[in-house]
Amino acid sequence: MRFSASCTAVMAGSVFVALLAFPLVGVAPAMAKKGAEPLAPPAATMKAEKRRKSEPTGEEEPSRADLLDGLFARLYMAGDAPEAKAIARSIRELWAESGSPTADLLVRQAGKALKGDDAETALRILNLVVRRWPDYVEAWNRRAGTRYMAGDAAGALKDLDQVLKLEPRHFEALFTKGAILEEMKRPKEAMAAYEEALSIWPGMKPAKEALHRLRLELDQET
Fold first, then answer.
1. 61: helix, coil or strand?
2. pLDDT at 6 over 80
3. Could you say which of 23, 71, 150, 194 is the most buried, measured as most Cβ atoms within 10 Å of its Cβ?
4. Can you tell me whether residue 68 is helix, strand or coil?
């Protein structure tokens, strides 16, 4: 089975891609005059700033769940506006956080193996990850894609169902599920998956296009 061009592009770009590292970048202050040395803040000022940062502010940091709730609300309202892609990217970054450096490292290794056309090694690594960290949503999502690439469409759908059990708003898992069902000649189920993805992100272009195409095909058959 083979995905259509639009389905393949999205799955290759979002479902199977390895996790990226985002290094912190420091920015030096601009100099007031060319060649001037930067002035160091007085020691008392530095101590006061350090003390201020260490003191409780009374404000709790938002939880991961709160951050996701806010992002999903913004994603729904954004529709197909340009900022929707940036919001979706922020959601993906949160999904990628397992809370375990070991799990993150293993998923990156699986991604490298997959890029090297070594699906067997990738699958072996991801099997380990989902056993050790069963609540790590993105590990199940990556394994679904790997299983599909290895020719196990039924296994991929099973993993996608697990993704959606843990995170029902996983629009990429819903789109991938629809694409697989479409390739399995199950158009009505595929349409339901695409519609569910669009109920979360109304501006998700690949899902909109796939749903429109299927509706046209079904209309032509009746």
1. coil
2. no
3. 194
4. helix
Architecture of domain 99-166: Alpha Horseshoe (1.25)
Tokens of 171: 């629009």
Nearest to 160 by CA among 132, 141, 139, 142: 141
Dihedral over Cα of 185, 189, 195, 199: its sign: negative
Spell out where the chain has E strands.
none
pLDDT digits (tens, 9 = 90+) for 110-139: 999 999 999 999 999 999 999 999 999 999
pLDDT computed for residue 173 by the predictor: 97
Nearest-angstrom CA–CA distance, 141 and 143: 5
Q: What is the predicted pLDDT for the residue at 59? A: 66
**Buried b or exposed e, range 133-154, using 16+ CB within 10 angstroms:** beebbbbbbbbbbbbbbeebbe
Residue 24, Cβ neighbours under 10 Å: how many?
4
